Structure formats: C-alpha cells, structure tokens
C-alpha cells in the first residue's frame, strides 16, 4: 500500500509538473521523495531539503546534481528512485555526487553571528511557485523563525529564479529578524575539507569559486570534477572561514532588506571542462 501511495503521489506531481513546453526549466515540490524541492534548467540541477528529511539532515544547503547539457532529467531520476533509492547516485548522464550534510552546500546563505553560521532550525516548511515560463521559473521557500542567538530571532523567505542557458541561479533572500538593528548574512560554498576534494579556488571581492573532486563517492566512484561558486556583487568581504569549511561572501542587512546573490555549478563532463574555464565563466558574470 505504501508503494502504491508513493507511485500515485509521483503521477500526480508529474501531471501538475511546473515545466515549460520547450523543457528548458523545471521546478517542483517532490513529496514522494522526502519533501525535496527540485530545480533544473538545461545545464544544471539541484534540490533543497524539506520537512520529511529533517534530522537526516536538517540543513539549508543546496545539493548539486551534475548533468550533461541538454534535456531535463530530474523527473526521470526521481522516477528511477521509486525502484532504486540510489538511482540518482549512479551515472545516467549525470548524478548526485555532492555531499551537503549540515552546511551551505552549493550556495545557500545563513546569518553569520560572532563568526559562526547560524543555520535555520528546520528545513523549508512551505513553498510557492510564482512563475514558470519559457524564460524562467521562480519559486519561494519559507523557513520558519529560529533563534539565531540569545538576542536575535530570524525567519527566511528564499526566492530563487532559474533561467535556461545559465550555470547560475538568482536568489533574493528576505531575512526578517528581531533583536538587532542589522544582521550579517553570508552566502557560501562548502569546501569539503574532510573529503579533501579541493583542487583550486578563487577568492575575489564578491566572488568565491572552487574546483573540486566529487565529495560524495559512497555509492559510485566519480572521476569528473565539479565547479561551484557564489557571487554577491555588493559583498563587504569574501574569505574562507577559520575552520576551512566554507568560502563566504558577506554583507550586513536590515530586517526585510533583500540579500541578493547568485549560486552556480558545473561538471567537467559537461560543457565546462576544467578549472580555468570555470573561473573564467564566474569572473564574466556581472
């Protein structure tokens, strides 16, 4: 019975799937797979973690899925996961070989208080799809209020815009908070020191990018490399944290003031073949 309900949920989701006729962008809530929220264009894909996955992990981090350029694959991979939970950890023209755990993953943001990232206490708890068309898809994820410090209580509405033909997505984070006049917020990338994946990195004002080996090889070895980056055009500082866990771009905001940035990724088996090409692509983003 549980399997039949899961299949029914998948069919209903696909029937109402937010996609375009040209199949260049897709976003949707994935109740049949632990409340994921998946996003995809013709170059990149990824997901955010929902309520059903809390504790395994509870994390705002963005999970990157590498893929070959061209068609959309996420719905096919989720369908495969109904038969084999590890389906998308195997190479089907791409895979999930990126480790998030409790981190910012491939480009999330979080308050930074006294030098420590203060993650939400939950995964996203609700969502809205605002627009889907040939030019873009836009969605919002809502993170309920949490205690970021003894004095500061914060909630987050994360608005993400996915456009075709770009390795980057555009983010407008609205942090609403009490207990302080301003809040330092950081957008960043997990550097995976425990996995020793780092091959090269770029640290420039408002830009942090790295080139690394796959960080999650637990299911199937991966010999390709990944590029990951965040861009905060008006950041006041860009640096690697003292513990080496993240590369961050930070700025100070007021409650309700948009924190705007971009996150992006690539795969060496796709159309960005090496670190030099990735770093050049990142530096050309305006």
Describe the protein's architecture and organization.
The protein contains three helices and 19 strands. The N and C termini lie far apart (51 Å). It has helices at 2-15, 74-83, 275-283; strands at residues 18-19, 25-30, 36-41, 45-48, 63-67, 94-95, 106-113, 116-117, 126-132, 137-147, 153-162, 168-178, 182-190, 198-204, 207-213, 225-231, 237-240, 246-254, 258-267. An eight-stranded antiparallel sheet has the order 9-10-11-12-19-16-15-14, with helices on one face. A six-stranded antiparallel sheet has the order 1-2-3-4-5-6. A five-stranded antiparallel sheet has the order 8-7-13-18-17, with no helix packed on it. It has a domain at 2-95. The model is unreliable at 1-17 (pLDDT under 50). Helices cover 12% and strands 44% of the residues. With 286 residues, it is mostly beta strands.
Q: Estimate the global geometry from the Cα principal axes.
A: globular
SSE class: mainly beta
Oligomer: single chain
Main sheet characteristics: 8 strands, antiparallel
Q: What's the total count of β strands?
A: 19
N- and C-termini, Cα separation = 51 Å
Q: Name the average pLDDT.
A: 93
Low-confidence segments, given as residue ranges, are: 1-17
**How many H/I helical runs?**
3
Q: Per DSSP, what share of the residues sits in E-state strands of 2 or more residues?
A: 35-45%
Strand arrangement across the biggest beta sheet: 9-10-11-12-19-16-15-14
| Element pattern in H and E | HEEEEEHEEEEEEEEEEEEEEH
Rounded radius of gyration (Å): 18 Å
The proportion of residues forming helix, as a percent range, comes to 10-25%
């Amino acid at each position: 019975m549980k399997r039949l309900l899961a299949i029914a949920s998948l069919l209903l989701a696909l029937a109402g799937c937010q996609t375009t006729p040209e199949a260049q962008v897709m976003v949707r809530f994935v109740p049949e797979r632990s409340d994921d929220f998946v996003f995809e264009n013709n170059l990149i894909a990824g997901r955010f973690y929902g309520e059903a996955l809390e504790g395994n992990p509870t994390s705002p981090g963005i999970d990157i899925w590498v893929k070959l350029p061209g068609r959309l694959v996420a719905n096919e991979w989720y369908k495969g996961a109904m038969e084999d939970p590890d389906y998308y950890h195997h190479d089907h023209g791409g895979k999930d070989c990126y480790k998030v755990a409790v981190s910012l993953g491939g480009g999330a943001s979080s308050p930074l208080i006294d030098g420590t990232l203060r993650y939400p206490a939950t995964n996203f708890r609700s969502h809205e799809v605002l627009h889907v068309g040939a030019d873009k898809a836009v969605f919002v994820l809502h993170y309920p209020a949490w205690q970021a410090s003894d004095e500061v209580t914060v909630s987050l509405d994360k608005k993400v815009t996915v456009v075709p033909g770009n390795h980057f997505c555009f983010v407008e984070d609205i942090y609403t908070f009490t207990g302080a006049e301003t809040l330092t917020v950081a957008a960043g990338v997990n550097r995976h020191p425990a996995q020793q994946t780092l091959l090269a990195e770029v640290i420039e004002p408002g830009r942090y990018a790295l080139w690394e080996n796959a960080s999650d090889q637990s299911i199937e070895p991966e010999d390709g490399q990944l590029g990951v980056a965040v861009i905060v055009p008006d950041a006041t500082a860009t640096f690697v944290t003292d513990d080496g866990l993240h590369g961050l771009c930070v700025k100070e905001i007021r409650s309700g003031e948009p924190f705007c940035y971009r996150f992006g990724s690539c795969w060496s088996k796709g159309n960005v073949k090496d670190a030099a090409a990735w770093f050049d692509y990142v530096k050309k983003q305006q």
